[in-house]
Design brief:
This is Tyrosine-type recombinase/integrase. InterPro entries: DNA_brk_join_enz, Integrase-like_cat_sf, Integrase_catalytic. This protein is mostly helical. It contains six helices and no strands. It has helices at residues 3-13, 16-21, 23-35, 53-67, 75-88, 93-99. The longest helix is centred in the middle third of the chain and has 15 residues, at 53-67.
Length: 100
């Protein structure tokens, strides 16, 4: 999903109160401003394309190493957690589906 589509969808479906309380949203806003993104939330070397899968997997391994996480964590694990936690908190499945 492009950055513009994601931003448009978030503005339409997530209330201001939900956005204000979301730490993730706050971190993404800072990242968005600092990185001066144009199209993708996580662009590749070519700014017009998303980050490459091997680069994403490498970043995930590096982050786990830096955090001292010894369990096997993959990008799929993060995707699963991203889905499961909001769902358990009562977030509408349609919102989660669009974000994925």
């Amino acid at each position: 999903m492009s950055l513009a589509k994601l931003a448009h969808w978030v503005r339409r479906h997530i209330s201001d109160d939900e956005m204000r309380t979301s730490q993730l949203a706050q971190h993404l806003r800072v990242y968005w401003k600092l990185a001066r993104l144009q199209v993708w939330l996580f662009p590749g070397l070519d700014q017009s394309k998303p980050i490459d899968v091997p680069v994403l997997n490498s970043a995930c391994r590096s982050a786990c190493d830096a955090a001292g996480i010894e369990k096997r964590v993959t990008v799929h694990t993060l995707r699963h957690s991203f889905t499961t936690h909001p769902l358990k908190s009562g977030t509408d499945i349609r919102i989660i589906r669009v974000l994925l």
